Amino acid sequence: MSTTLSTLFISLLILTTLTRIWLGRRHVSFMQAHRHEVPKAFIKDISLEAHQKAADYSSAKTKLMIAESTVQALLLLMLTLGGGLQAIDEIWRNLLPSQEMFRGASVIATALMISSIIDLPFDYYKTFVVDQHFGFNKMTRQMFFSDMLKQSLVGAVLGAPILFAALWLMEGAGDYWWLYLWTVWSAFNLLMLAVYPTFIAPIFNKFTPLEDGSLKTKIETLLTKCGFKSQGLFVMDGSARSSHGNAYFTGFGSSKRVVFFDTLLERLNEDEIEAVLAHELGHFKHHHVIKRIAMLFTVSFLGLALLGWISQQTWFYNGLGVTEVSNYMALILFLLVSPVFLFVLRPIMANYSRKNEFEADAYAATHASSKHLIEALVKLYRDNASTLTPDPLHSAFYDSHPPASIRISKLAQFKS
What we know:
With 416 residues, the chain is mainly alpha-helical. The chain contains 16 helices and 4 strands.
């Protein structure tokens, strides 16, 4: 059985990696083949120069993704069948021979740290080479490494309790430890949704209340009309790190707040901002956030139930390059290899997300103006250098938002 798992894992890892590379190369080729002419729907609003910049920017990011995916696949192979996790485990067994919970936490932390170190050069290159070249990066190197340190510390502070809770439950809660862990994990996620806007997000960005004026009045009127209650309207200093613009909802329950990037407010007029907000309210009104939370809880329930069973199977460990059976090794192996087995679900999840975007657009078209939303989207496509001509198959696998031409076409039907 262990040999069968090894063969299946290697086969799927190779297949998914080659698929990522193939889709990425298709995407680059498609964009470059269409970079010489602006699509008709955008020809009045987006110059050929801006269109070509978007094609080249997206191509550069995709090429980097191909390289990163290849390196991550090799790292995963080294950690599993290559004996990496086994070697890490042996080191910590010598250092902490009788303290299994602390040893397990150390093994998992070490594996995650190695993965983060491998990812660091790609993040650095993306920020200071790709984004810098295309004029989007505003970060200094000091800010980059400061953010990285903050993320590591926040991750450790928040992750350590849930990790120790998982190891403790796996050790002493009996056959249904996975059900208790699912309950703890679900409660933890709900807590994070509630506290993130107020206590965690300000660690990385500055949030200031939206100033009084006609824009705030217009937004508050729309919120009242749509029955949305929030903790407040805030502007985030997105320009400190990037020139990209965005807006989003964050929080859960009474902690909900509306956040605008300062770069977004600089580029869009009040009617366009209202239309963008109406789109975000569409997600709220269609319960997309709640549905995603329910989906996350369902997937985690099924995943932990599966982990509860395979953690008792010796072939699971042996088939992935580990000889010593332990709760912590079951946990880290499951976290590392599950994305390989779930890759086939990517287009399904992407399609679901795009349907949510269409629903939010339809809501915006009936509660604000589809004309203004189109104008806002075109400006965001142009200013964020979002490609107007993605490869359809690549988009089907990866894009959470509909391709620009299809999205604008549907909005234009509301306009007419």
